[in-house]
Amino acid sequence: MPHTAFITGATSGFGRACAHRFADAGWNLVLSGRRSDRLQEIQDALQARCAVHTISLDVRDTAAVQDAVASLPQPFSEVHVLVNNAGLALGTAPAQHSDLEQWHRMIDTNIKGLTTVTHALLPTLVARGRGTSIINIGSVAGHWPYPGGNVYCGSKAFVEQFSLALRSDLQGSGVRVSCLAPGLSESEFTLVRTGGDQAAYDALYAGADPIQPQDIADTVFWLATLPAHLNVNSLELMPVSQSWSPFTISRR
């Protein structure tokens, strides 16, 4: 029987690319996202290659997440790999000028949503044991602060530390936990963050040769298919064009 991957935020970017990568290998797929029209599109595109079960789901809704996991039909209920990809950044303003509602939405999606999905699927993953994986999509923003990052950086730092602590808790279960932290990546992410500002999107990626969703999908698939005795705890991935800036000093 094919293995099953449960991928959140599967309607665009990394999640959509991951769905295609696992489908290419013949995995069963559980794909969740908020946009039902896009879920239908991806199901139509993939169903000739693998079995696909889609769930129109907002990971911030705890009851909906729990119900969705509890009602997974066979063969989709035997999840081997969870890819916690659903997440977002909103706004680029410094903290003192930020929108509190945007802060709360990031916390609810990037932290609450990720932990809710993980909690709901842990019994299944632990029951399967050796060779199963939880792959959390973090960010270099969880490692390196930058102006305007504020709550987004904090939420991704949580993902990193949660992943490490979860791995400690799962010691001996056979369940692997990895946190993949991408750097500059080209996707709808920046359009969402800037409220659809195409000029800002174009300026950010111009000449940078950024990470593409397929790059992340290939990396996620590699993590998921490593020999069962291996675990990559944390992996930071940047395009060659990106590195670290000097410290800044404000002088009076």
Please give the structural blueprint:
Elements: E1 4-7, H1 13-24, E2 28-33, H2 36-46, E3 52-56, H3 62-70, E4 81-84, H4 100-128, E5 133-137, H5 150-169, E6 176-182, H6 189-193, H7 198-205, H8 213-224, E7 234-237
Parallel strand pairs: 1-2, 1-4, 2-3, 4-5, 5-6, 6-7
Helix pairs in contact: 1-8, 3-4, 4-5
Number of domains: 1
**What number is the mean pLDDT?**
95
Query: What string, H for helix and E for strand, traces the elements in order?
Result: EHEHEHEHEHEHHHE
Strand order of the largest sheet: 3-2-1-4-5-6-7
What's the β-strand tally? 7
General description of the model:
- The protein has helices at 13-24, 36-46, 62-70, 100-128, 150-169, 189-193, 198-205, 213-224, and strands at 4-7, 28-33, 52-56, 81-84, 133-137, 176-182, 234-237.
- The chain is α/β, with parallel strands linked by helices.
- The chain has one domain (4-184, 212-235): 3-Layer(aba) Sandwich (Rossmann fold).
- It has a seven-stranded parallel beta sheet with strand order 3-2-1-4-5-6-7, with helices on both faces.
- Helix 1 (13-24) links the parallel strand 1 and strand 2.
- It starts with a strand and ends in a 15-residue tail after the last strand.
Please give a handful of descriptors for the protein shown.
252 residues; Rossmann fold
What is this structure, in a nutshell?
With 252 residues, the chain is of the alpha/beta class. The protein has helices spanning 13-24, 36-46, 62-70, 100-128, 150-169, 189-193, 198-205, 213-224; strands at 4-7, 28-33, 52-56, 81-84, 133-137, 176-182, 234-237.
